[in-house]
Design a protein that fits this description.
about 400 residues, alpha/beta, Rossmann fold, Elongation Factor Tu (Ef-tu), domain 3, 2 domains, 5-stranded parallel β-sheet, 8 helices, 18 strands, globular
Amino acid sequence: MKPKKVIVGLSGGVDSSVAAWLLMEQGYEVEGLFMRNWHDTTGLIQSECHWEDDVMFAEMVARKLGIPFHFVDLSEDYRKRVVDYMFSEYEKGRTPNPDILCNREIKFDSFVTEVRKLGGDYLATGHYCRKEEVLINGRAVFRLLAGIDENKDQSYFLCQLSQEQLKDVLFPVGNMTKAEVRETAARLKLPTAHRKDSQGICFIGKVHLPEFLQQKIAPRKGIIVEIPRDAILQEWHTGLPGDDAGDDELRKAVTPYMYKPEMGKAIGEHNGAHYFTIGQRKGINIGGYREPLFVIGIDAVRNILYVGEGQSHPGLYRKGLFIRKDEVHWVRPDLAMAEGESRDYMVRIRYRQGLQKARLYLRKDGMYIVFNKLQRGITPGQFAAWYDGDEVVGSGVIRA
């Protein structure tokens, strides 16, 4: 019987290199496919390796393993489906997550089309996560699980994938630690064994964000307003709203602070509020304070940046968040909540953040997530993902 063909997304990094070798060991017919997704170098930090280096390493790995190597340019799809969305969100004063979008729109969509063209039965990537197939009411259901290496788990980045996208994907290194992957690559003398992990925006690299965004969003002078701690009078709830909590109570629990210039004092200028994100410290460039200043609010319409002094400033912390109903995504549709239902899950609002206890309330207008403890830097535009144990159950874009 002919072995199944797997197309590995060779990125030029150590993880996908070892993934390809593992699949060969498991008896699959393996080929490598590199995708180029970005051409423009505007805003890139030049010390970072660019795609030319990545493709060279990917081809070297394919040659070392003795597998066919292919190349595809998906930059037009990436620009339309990821980068244009990024610019649009930043312009509105929100902070998008391009890595999650790239996975949903490119790696596990456009890229899969190329995998099929090459006759691939499966797509494999070097993500540190796991997939498990279970039967529920006689139907196959795919569980997306965290990787066993807690420090490298990338399940959060895949929180927008669908059952259809998970069906024919393999994650060979999800049961390994990063150290084991490095050791395996060194033992096999793979060219990527000691290569640094990529950083920055998916397929673009490490960027100087204001310069990168200036391609589409022009600089605009505005004021920086410092908000004193005692100007924030919102009640901090110590407990969770009940299962039968009304919409008003839930809105109160998740509504962010609404700042006005008269609540504080103007202390300087910026070149565009849309270049900043909640919780940001760098780039404010105002001294003379005992503790650092942090961004606590962004008014993109009036181009005002609100800041507060110190890590413990109450403006950095919130009790909950809101996701619009049309943007609530269930990785496990069979576990979807019904309108009016509430359920406890562990929730993550950014990569590498520890899972946080929270209660989810699905209402007519959307999902309200209220945490047991105050959360630092809840950021509109980012994704909240909820877990049951080590399984990603669902996710959605934070809108408030």
